[in-house]
Structures
1.
Amino acid sequence: MPSFDEVLKEAGEFGRFQKRVFFLLSQTGITFSSLFASVVFLGRAPGNFWCRIPGAAELNERCGWTLEEERNFTVLPLGNESGSGECERLDVAWDTSAGCSSPLARYGNHSTGRLPLAPCRDNWVYEQPHASIVSEYDLVCDNAWMLDLSQAILNLGFLAGAFILGYAADRYGRILIYLLSCLGVGICGIIVAFSPNFTVFSIFRFLQGMFGKGTWMTCYVIVTEIVGSDQRMVGIVIQIFFTLGIIILPGIAYLIPTWQGIQLAISLPNFLFLLYYWVVPESPRWLLTRKKGEKALKIMRNIAKHNGKFLSPHYSEITISNEEVSNPSCLDLVRTPQMRRNTLILMYAWFTSALIYQGLVMRLGIIGGNLYLDFFISGAVELPAALLIIVTIDRIGRRLPFAMGNIVASIACLITAFLPEDIPWLKTTVATLGRLSITIAFEIVYLVNSELYPTTLRNFGVSLCSSLCDLGGIIAPFLLFRLAAIWLELPLIIFSILAAVCGLLVLLLPETKGISLPETVEDVEQL
């Protein structure tokens, strides 16, 4: 009986069939990255806003004021001595006898700054009321922290998806969980767009994150499992589509003025992926681990046919594993020495890559400027990362570029922290080098993670380790902004230390260049 890898070589390791499946599943990267970074535009600043004094709406209607006139008469007096009028309002009664031109006339123009004030609770007025979730759900002033909470909730959804759907994909099949996840992302995305309040928004944002993680991780594993060992750089190429989503997102946000429109634009395409039911098969590797050899062989014959190849008619069964089928368990990832070392190092690498990656992205955004252009450039910076990996990974292996990506990022962060402020172009350039380097490390960890786990545990192992990525994403904004309040460059020092440690640890991982994907735990122990 031939092994799976022998049959795959005969059917074609990266022929027309695999290229089609790869291209189709890669589109998932565009929608997932748009979801991942959407808070930048869903939660953008709503422009000018102020607190409406009780009774202002009635007087506005009677006097026929525009919003600008209402603001001039009822809010701008606060700007003299008492504040901006965004989070506080005048706690006074209207002087209706003075007419519409000066409702606060009884207090005198010179004494406005000494008028009593009251905090604004739920009566804000926005120049752009539906531009973002900030204006939609009043996430301003004392509620501003809820915007950060919305992103943390999304990352919690990613975390839940890594555990729940990663386990489900190993137990019930890759393509089934992928299709169910696509359906979930689309439905939850629509509900998020029309949420009546922030509570409903948060609940379905969490669920959309959970299903979104299911689509991304499962499509990645399917692509990795249907190609030969010499073609697994497709795991890096698929990251380019993630970057394309980052580049496309600001264009979508620029053309669509409302946050609901942006939310629908990044959610509805997931329904199109349901059509893959008819063109993307189940992973034959997974079928073999579930003792479904006939189905796997049928799929392999179909792959060979589309690739213009021919499998021997004498093949009646494919061997892949002598292990009994068992449901994946967390203990399986740490039960043996090599699996345990791989798991712990990969968890740290995921956590570090995500924390530094998101931290550097947010740090570049602090400098201000054109939001759409800055975001586009920050995404374009990631494209050379994939190209550098493709050029080097099959020549010098995985481990050295993985380590160097972290080490260079560490050095770049450290240098950026101590560069003087009067040469901002140099600080930005070095910080961008750090962003490029950590992107290289971030993209390699996807590939290495899938190559270091056996087929029976691959989806679960990748999902569990990558859950640390989501934990890093939750911590990143709090770490960045709290440490920056102490010293602006302190986060860069922390990033530098974390990256340096990661660069040394990944050198302890086995090299997987040109090696067939492990099928059993014993295969991993022998790497």
Note: Residues 337-366 form the longest helix (30 residues).
2.
Amino acid sequence: GELSDIAHAIAAEQKAMDLTPEDRADLPTYLNNLGNSFKFRFERTGELSDIAHAIKVQQRAGELTPRGHAHLPGILSNLGGSFTRRFERTGDLSDIADAIDVQQKAVNLTPQGHADLPSRLNNLGCSLTCRFECTGELSQVWDAIAEYQKAVDLTPQGHADLPNYLTNLGGSFYQCYRSSGKIGDLEEAISCFKTASISSVGSLRVMLEAAHHWAGKLILYDPTSPEIIAAFDKALSLLAMVAGLERTVQGRYIQLELQNLSGLPLEAAALACALDRPDKALEWLEQGRCLVWNQLNNLRTPLDSLRIKDENLAQEIANVSQKLESAGSSRVQSHVDMPLPEKMSLEAEARAHSDLAEERDTLLKRARALPGFESFLKPSPCSAIMSHLPESGPIIVINVDEHRCDALALLAGMEEPLHIPLPNFSVDKANKYRNIFDQQLRTHRLRAREVEVTLSPDEQRGLRRAPIGKNGEDLSVYRALRGLWEEVVEPILDALGFSAPPRVWWCPTGPLSFLPLHAAGIYQGSISDYVVSSYTPTVTALTDRVKNDHSIDSRASGLFLTSQPNAPSASPIPGTAEEVQSIFQRAEGSGVRASKLEGDETSVAACLDQMKEFSCIHLACHGSQNAAEPLKSRFLFHQGDLELGTILRSNLKHADLAFLSACQTSTGQEKLSDEAVHLAAGMLAAGYRRVIGTMWSIGDAPAQKVATTFYEYLFNHRDETSDSAFDGSLSAVALHHATKQLRLGLDDSEHSLLTWVPFVHFGL
């Protein structure tokens, strides 16, 4: 997905074209290839100038190619694809008419038995489908079905393109069903999607799309069908393969975003809950959510991990998978200069694809026979996920889907989750409450850590009017927190049979990920008055820490602090210097091993050296998150930036506690709310067992108050058996105590509420 690569391709192909005389027979080939590269870039960037260039050079390629030439059908088919892409962007009917015209010519010029005929029929079907989606004329979708059906009929079993053709055919049958309401059309669609998704060969991404459709259309057909479980099982297994074979963190992120897959596990879990299968709901949520975070957690893809164990086996799996993926993706003839006798027949291609699929299955069996790789590219079963749960309280996974909302309570000693339906909560309510918070945060100017501004008289206690919606509804933060209590938290506690567990770990999904469950309540009382709350990106992120919990090496036990009050291009936060100095003095007075470097005193490299030497760190600075490239999220220093990727690549074998006294360090990205790509989750991935972050921006003075009170609690309650032992095992309780102390000095205004709520604890 690197745009610089396609830019280099275009430059090279442009040069090739410029160096080729008009009368050279291979000029159309160069033009065709250049056009395809422009089209690929357009599909990533959406720049209309790129698709216009693609059409222009491919039209010229067609004009320069003699009628009857073997390359002409391929060039015309590619030109039609470019017209279709532009139509999808602009809606100009003349483009789709041109696409259908040239693709029909491409089909007519392609001899029967030619290996490329099915792909050209499929391309024509795609353009006909686009026209139907614009005009709504049912006869046009039947034209598309006819072309897709020919492509399917001409393609032998075992060919990698067959799942793609079947998925397109199923989509057109489903469009017929939506227009006509005939159940037979829906049955045909389901049959196509099922056959495509269970194929032994083909593009994993295409098969994943088919499996998603198979499950979704089955729900429409018969929501009680036991086959739905099989369909979602297939979809989530394919998602595990697709994500596991992706080579980079950014690559996973792009695939999730482009394929609109982030909602798949939530949809699957909602269905599992409706069928009273909480075990499946947990498996699917754990498998399908936080794919980017899971890779961050290891800084390696599953293939990277395997490569450490068996480099040759990992490379073989990567090579075979790439060949199958390329073979089963929609064809674009980038190179049309292969002589016809050299082209493989469809039957030979099918045999080759089947051989590749068998080879991959054999390689995967070899990998799964290795110790520690039994679940390589496979979902973990419920029993494995439920092992090593914390003894001190439940993990509460909350699934928020457009069809229903449910909680899954995981308690030590139980074999499967306790299913708690949440019938009074919904995606719409979660989004409503989130919008309330967004609006009030803007109103109160809580966008960056900075010195507090003096509020106007109308903004002071008792004088601010409660925000009112168009229909007179209460749009205050108090209303949102009351809704979270009544519709989410209280039903969960009631179902658990106790009102005050010592600890609760929240694992929310969807838009609920942006809301402070730890502060839900009917004020002046909230869950925070009697429950110590923490968060975890996934269940496994916490259970792995329970499983591998160990004492800190006494030589590394201690606290490193740094303040960066005047980072370039960021607002001054002078309180960070006082904050760090105050904590440092308290640490020394308590006999805790401590070190501090402030402002210009430290470089990024020096900070990293200290992080390796100390089990706990306190970063009082600005933070900047990069959701698209999580490894480039960073902390802003006077002398450069400390990037998350740099931290992850460091060997922090003593990492225990990270306190991020920076703004918005636990805020995710709206488009992929189930991908924990914020700085707090990144520090967990770097190896820290517990992290303090903030859900939104914090004021300079409250940040100092919470931080100093937090450490006072830890210093006063540290293990007295050692003169200098210090760790973060009580960090969740310490943060709970610190925010409670902050509240005691605040009034009951909404601004005060937004002052203490953002502080959150992740991990053990």
Note: The longest strand covers residues 395-400.
3.
Amino acid sequence: PGFGAATTTAAAPATGFSFGSTNTGTFGGFGTTTTTAAAPGSTFSFAAPANTTGGLFGNTQNKGFGFSTGLGAGTAAGTTGFGTGLGTTSLGGFGGFNIQPTQQQQGGLFGQQAQQPGQPQPTQLYQQVTALSAPTLLGDERDSILAKWNQLQAYWGTGKGYYSNNNAPVDFTQENPFCRFKAVGYSCVPVSKDEDGLVVLVLNKKEADVRAQQQQLVESLHKILGSNQTLTVNVDGVKALPSDQTEVIIYVVERSLNGTSKRIPASTLFSYLEQANIKAQLTQIGVAMSVTRTELSPAQLKQLLQNAPAGVDPIIWEQAKVDNPDPEKLIPVPMVGFKELLRRLQIQEQMTKQHQTRVDIISSDISELQKNQATTVAKIAQYKRKLMDLSHRVLQVLIKQEIQRKSGYAIQVDEEHLRVQLDTIQSELNAPTQFKGRLNELMSQIRMQNHFGAVRSEERYSVDADLLREIKQHLKQQQEGLSHLISVIKDDLEDIKLIEHGLSDSGHMRGGILS
């Protein structure tokens, strides 16, 4: 718009958490008159004048820099809904709260009268809204800068928002509905029942230390339960967690005087452990947190899925339900802040390590089973051969026994039939076109292949002429060396014989002299 022009802007309708500007705002210029229509579906009804004649940047008062005291510079807003039209003005953020602090407000929260002294203090949500849209701490244009700073803190989910001299600042945590660092993940649906009595204890100790001191932990828990002789503490499982923490799943069994036993319900045990004095004793033994993991009823699950958590865009929540890879086993859960994201990442890495360890164990078991299978197969083959040999030996014994038993008897009819059948089988085997001829043919082919293979193996290698000449020269030198060695040995033998002959002659001469 030009200088002195009139501008009419219609506020965006309620569309949930719509971060991202749909109305870029207006530069009012000098003497600009701006009119804004109210957005339908509003919740927080902050009334403002329909027409405002402002100075520089459309401000109703020209104070120094002339920044607008509301979030929408140069725009006098009507009623805009909180949680339905965020980010519809020039700041690209919380434009749904365009309050002109210099004007008289006609309505308060939900159309009620404005907060009066002596009435109850405003809610935290109202304080956050006021800190983001219309702080009145300084009473001039610097409040708009403070509002932007509060918006930035709310986006990050940290810091304190100062908005009034009469009220304490509001704390911005990552759970506030304006925090941008939010996502949706998935967690497994608990399957244990309340009757199973499973309660999870998170200890600030390593898994190895917990396993080494498991009996001491059980005794300590039994003392915390009052050292009741009818109660027994049992450990269902131990699992490592990130940051050197360990998850221990316990349940308590109560034995009655008649010998029957039952588990304490998880809700009862959890309520007992959450008592202040009991919780202090648990802290002394290193327990950081205790939770129950009981299955949800269909009504609870339906209510959880239908209602989006606080601060999560319903559209994102609906999309998360659609993208659920396994709706029967997984449920969407909100992730707020980088710490939660880091925690889930560490848990994922921990589970990956555990799965890899389990896969390695299974692989080693499979390798061992394969070795056992190979050994078993070899033993089975050995036992089959042994069975065949024993069968032949038993058959030979039976033949000899039958011959001795039948000795002196004439050949019976069935024996004659058996002999005829055996002769027929033998003739079939000896026929040229039957099995024996085929076996002979196969044997001849195998011999020919072996012969050809030997011939090919002989012709397979060839030696270069120069290399062959060098080999011959080397063998010749070796032969000459051996010949020289043989001649030296022969000379030495002749010398030895000569020495022996001389020794024998001297012995005879000595004997004659003595005689």
Note: The radius of gyration is 50 Å.
4.
Amino acid sequence: QRDAKGQYLFDLLCHHLNLLEKDYFGIRFVDPDKQRHWLEFTKSVVKQMRAQPPFTMCFRVKFYPTDPAALKEEITRYLVFLQIKRDLYHGRLLCKTSDAALLAAYILQAEIGDYDPGKHPEGYSSKFQFFPKHSEKLERKIAEIHKSELSGQTPATSELNFLRKAQTLETYGVDPHPCKDVSGNAAFLAFTPFGFVVLQGNKRVHFIKWNEVTKMKFEGKTFYLYVSQKEEKKIVLTYFAPTPEACKHLWKCGIENQAFYKLEKSSQVRTMSSSNLFFKGSRFRYSGRVAKEVMESSAKIKREPPEIHRAGLVPSRSCPSITHGPRLSSVPRTRRRAVHISIMEGLESLRDSAHSTPVRSASHGDAFAGPGRSGRAESSERVAVIADESYSPADSVLPTPVAEHSLELMLLSRQANGAPCSIEEEKESEAGTPAAEAEGELRALCPGAGSLGPAQVQQVNKFVLSVLRLLLVTVGLLFVLLLLLIVLTESDLDTAFFRDIRQTPEFEQFHYQYFCPLRRWFACKLRAVVNLLIDT
């Protein structure tokens, strides 16, 4: 409905997925200017959308669990597994070659089970795409680990081991925001379960714990992070976002992440302002529960574990989500033969079809050969598999078209826990905003229209809001001055402060030449009005 709030849509989706530990997740959408946003649950869905319906939204992990292995339910761990698997594929999760091989082997074990010489011929691991790029040596290492070390592990066990390993990596939980530092160098800012991170090249150049972050604010395109470290050392980190909207989104993400991970109780959450002046800037307040409360609530869950319909190795332009069956790719792979996995019968044969993790196709081949990426990953332990020269998730992501009318997905038309997600993805920002977010896209068809363009409406709203704030501040200041004037002239308070003011020549002149005549005139007019009312 037009007045339905974001919380209603989110609860509807979590009920659809049979998900109780839902505080880690959120709904993301992209506006017509290609700027990403998190759906705010306290506001109307339609009012947050600047596009015309139908609206395309994406179910994502918003707050990565500090310890994903400690999640209570397997369905929650599976959804987080899908998100991190997607992060790995889209170049967000940097790791050494040995770590990459182990993570990929866990994915392989979770999706196709134990190695079977009769079903898995030589080079079978090369049929799957786990990273933006592979090397033959890496593919052999993946197959070797899968054959020798993971035999007997169930999908749930493999996913749990995957999460435990991913959690140890420096870029676990990174949702990168492209920016530039004061020197004009490209950087990615991110908020993780443990603090604020700045990435340049393929290195983490800054890591600041949440208890060291004292304040975050923004002005236009400029983002400020105030840090208080040991020995009362205070620093301010300054970065420049591509657009004011991107900077505001960065600021809001920072406010939410700090509240979620740092605070003990949601009652401690305060409304934050982007400016020191109360009539200027934006205001935002995190509306959910904090991590500690979520963990305490999860410990109280007592129910039969819900059935999980895991995706087999099926094709998509992103990693798979919860589904009952495979989806076939309409674009064949050009470099290698693809693999078809039958979920009901297991991996019986290798055929010309497709697989679960995304493959390089003829139409998307150039998406993996962006600037800053050269050749295949080296086997050296010091070289990151995802980014050889510079950390740039946008180089590895696939195109992300906004809703195509030929692919209508109604949320309620799917079976619980069994809805295949749209193969569409979010539009990436022109300034390099990573378009890859995580598993499961949905499209909510909501009514909504307007004669004014979205950009015009937003500009008008901002102007009206600024005028109202200025008017409110002016009236408030005048009221305060009036009260002070009345106290000075009419009260009997004889404090040193008032006495000094009253004894000044300027005040005496004002009092006798202006204030007293004005008071007599006002009293006269008031008596005239009262007499008029009595006569009538």
Note: Residues 313-451 have pLDDT under 50 and may be disordered.
